[in-house]
Specification:
Elements: H1 2-19, E1 29-33, H2 34-42, E2 47-51, E3 55-67, E4 72-83, E5 90-103, E6 108-121, H3 126-144, E7 148-151, E8 158-159, E9 162-163, E10 166-172, E11 175-180
Length: about 180
């Protein structure tokens, strides 16, 4: 009987701790390595887009690297382009940097302010690359701004009966660190 009383008292104490805002059992961060982040991102590709009938772009095979010094991630994609009505398909590499944000409505990590750093196109004249670069920059912004690259499932948002809510996102050399609100 004494053992049941002690167990009940322990459960009561633990339940009280779970209700506290500074619960010692609640994780303070969730970390995704660059490889885990890349795998989650790869599930969203390939993406096919057209821009005013002038450029058709297929983006695939993302490669991710962390850029903590500028609080961004860098992504390189393979891109196949048909431009300016040409039948020829141009192979290229797109280099993009972006910050990340948490969208509470969709429970997702999303791209924020993606920026086209460079585009390398095999077999295209340099004057065409300049025109294409401007259009591709707009297309990248329109396509990737707010794009969910990781969506938390309901199980991710609970830990031993506690609701977890991401508060901020940090880019580190090791990966993406999601800070949990206390």
């Amino acid at each position: 009987m004494k053992r049941w009383f002690e167990l009940g008292l322990l459960l009561f104490f633990l339940t009280g701790l779970m209700g506290c805002s500074s619960n010692p059992f609640k994780p303070s961060t969730v970390t995704f390595t660059a490889l885990e982040f890349q795998r989650a991102l790869a599930k969203k590709f390939p993406v096919r887009k057209q821009y005013f009938g002038l450029v058709e772009l297929v983006i695939s095979h993302p490669e991710v690297s962390m850029r903590p010094e500028i609080k961004h991630i860098a992504m390189q994609f393979d891109a196949d382009m048909a431009a300016f009505g040409a039948k020829q398909l141009f192979k290229s590499k797109l280099n993009i940097t972006t910050s990340l944000a948490y969208n509470a409505d969709t429970k997702s990590i999303v791209l924020k302010e993606p920026h086209l750093d460079s585009i390398d196109v095999e077999g295209m004249r340099s004057d065409r690359i300049q025109d294409l670069n401007q259009m591709a920059a707009i297309l990248i912004r329109e396509t990737l701004e707010g794009a969910a690259i990781y969506t938390f499932n309901p199980d991710d948002m609970h830990f031993i009966g506690m609701k977890l809510e991401p508060e901020s996102i940090e880019i580190t050399p090791q990966g993406v660190v999601v800070h949990i609100a206390k």
